[in-house]
Amino acid sequence: MINSRQSFGFNLVELMITLTIFSLLSVIALPSFKSLQQQLRVESNLQTIQQAMQFARNIAITYGTRVTVCPLLNNKCGDDWNNGFSVFIDSGKTNQVNTNDVIMLEVSQFHEEDIIQYNRLAVRYQPDGLASGTNGTLTYCPETIDSPYSKAIIVNQAGRVRYSTKNNISCK
After folding, report:
1. For the domain 12-163, what is the CATH superfamily, name and number?
2. How far apart are CA 82 and CA 109, in angstroms?
3. What is the pLDDT confidence band of residue 13, given thresholds at 50, 70 and 90?
């Protein structure tokens, strides 16, 4: 008689070898996944910031009014861009939300370990779309001040926003 015993699974030794190989490959690949995640987070958040700046400029031109972009703290512009920022029609005293001002857009907090800096208190768009006096560079550094994945956007005098082509951007 022929004994036809069929096995449709792994035995314990095969399972342990497979899990060991999988674990080793995961440990080797994990750092590259983290760097990919940082790159994607920076690009996504900078695109959000750029779109908000373009939105603010368009609102200023469309409604013929001054529009401010800044992180708000007690209805006044602060300097902690990491906690998010607001775009508001700034018809009263500059750099603060008054009773007649309207908040048009709020961008929520960014990753808690990332460093976001702008070399001005706010970006202020005039009714003609110019950002004169508040033009500058916003830097975004994921997790460390000298990350190789750091990027920056530049707001020029005309109020237009573009990505910086500079290498080795730092958030010092």
Report:
1. minor pseudopilin epsh domain (3.55.40.10)
2. 6
3. confident
Contacts of 162 (CB under 8 A, 6+ apart): 153, 154, 156
**pTM of the predicted structure, to 2 decimals:** 0.80
Structure token digits, residue 125: 């768009």
Domain limits of the chain? Answer: 12-163
